[in-house]
């Protein structure tokens, strides 16, 4: 039996009534931690819960494990992590009654029937509208009926008039294009995400040619090269040298097809800027999407003539909110990066959100209701990004929206 406690405002803490260990997730900026609490005999579970709540330790509870197994399972789990990252696990910190395991955000975890924590690897990166969440699948398990059509309908009803579906590999880009073909308002990008650049290793020219073929055969649908760029926060998926080499390598597609870049940049602004500056002649423009860098990084990217894309991940800290006020209005774009990067109630900009949508847990979600799935971002939520930007930049929201719309058309749709 499970019972829900709400001990820490919007952080839902769910706990079993039995006194087993509690397993939860704590989201950090670039990673999450698995939190495992072992109640001691005297205090029992409620005191552990109170402690967790007080310290804001848990954002999401995974499950409970059998108390006797927990140490064993932890050891196995740590081994699994080491294998995935081919390095020692990122650290198990053992406190009095709390274990913390740091994990990169993109390695999803699940708990299988035996109660073993497992890693689900990188196939969940990127995603967006081709993501399985819109087919009702979460970490491989079915939680509700497919609802992509409903999600799109909400977006069109909400006033969106075009959407760009991001690709991050040949397979991904192919899927994005196929989806784009189903509606005249949908478009796609074609390119290789920095974390996928190992795909180039076997036959770089062949891989590039397959990207080229996708662009050539779908000229009416492909509006950008990308996502491409550099991601130094996820070197465990693809090492730096390979990222650098094949980011630069695919830049030639921009000039060849006269298409702008849809750029991904994490903790790598200096190198990204250096490569773009060196290859100025190969590039016809672009946007750095999901920007969350410093003001210094912003300035360097602006100096190259690039646009800046803002989503919920770009608005997670007070510093983020200050940086976005420095973006010139004629260089600003907004996005959701759904199903990821939603604006969360814990984010500092959330107080400026006016338009809120009812959400329910994925298990309770029914297609056709007006609810959204809790924790899954969708295109209509782009309005929340706009509302935060208008507030922190102290601009008229309609004028800001019109400017952003113009910028987007100028870069992607000015054929
Ligand atoms: Zn990205």
From TrEMBL:
<dbReference type="InterPro" id="IPR001130">
    <property type="entry name" value="TatD-like"/>
</dbReference>
<dbReference type="InterPro" id="IPR042185">
    <property type="entry name" value="Serpin_sf_2"/>
</dbReference>
<dbReference type="InterPro" id="IPR042178">
    <property type="entry name" value="Serpin_sf_1"/>
</dbReference>
<comment type="function">
    <text>Deoxyribonuclease which catalyzes (in vitro) the decatenation of kinetoplast DNA, which are circular DNA catenated to each other, producing linear DNA molecules. Plays an important role in chromosomal segregation and cell cycle progression during eye development probably via its DNA decatenation activity.</text>
</comment>
<keyword id="KW-0722">Serine protease inhibitor</keyword>
<dbReference type="GO" id="GO:0005829">
    <property type="term" value="C:cytosol"/>
</dbReference>
<dbReference type="Pfam" id="PF01026">
    <property type="entry name" value="TatD_DNase"/>
</dbReference>
<protein>
    <recommendedName>
        <fullName>Deoxyribonuclease TATDN1</fullName>
    </recommendedName>
</protein>
<keyword id="KW-0646">Protease inhibitor</keyword>
<dbReference type="InterPro" id="IPR018228">
    <property type="entry name" value="DNase_TatD-rel_CS"/>
</dbReference>
<dbReference type="GO" id="GO:0004867">
    <property type="term" value="F:serine-type endopeptidase inhibitor activity"/>
</dbReference>
<dbReference type="InterPro" id="IPR050891">
    <property type="entry name" value="TatD-type_Hydrolase"/>
</dbReference>
<keyword id="KW-0540">Nuclease</keyword>
<dbReference type="InterPro" id="IPR032466">
    <property type="entry name" value="Metal_Hydrolase"/>
</dbReference>
<dbReference type="GO" id="GO:0046872">
    <property type="term" value="F:metal ion binding"/>
</dbReference>
<keyword id="KW-0378">Hydrolase</keyword>
<keyword id="KW-0479">Metal-binding</keyword>
<dbReference type="InterPro" id="IPR036186">
    <property type="entry name" value="Serpin_sf"/>
</dbReference>
<comment type="similarity">
    <text>Belongs to the metallo-dependent hydrolases superfamily. TatD-type hydrolase family.</text>
</comment>
<dbReference type="GO" id="GO:0008296">
    <property type="term" value="F:3'-5'-DNA exonuclease activity"/>
</dbReference>
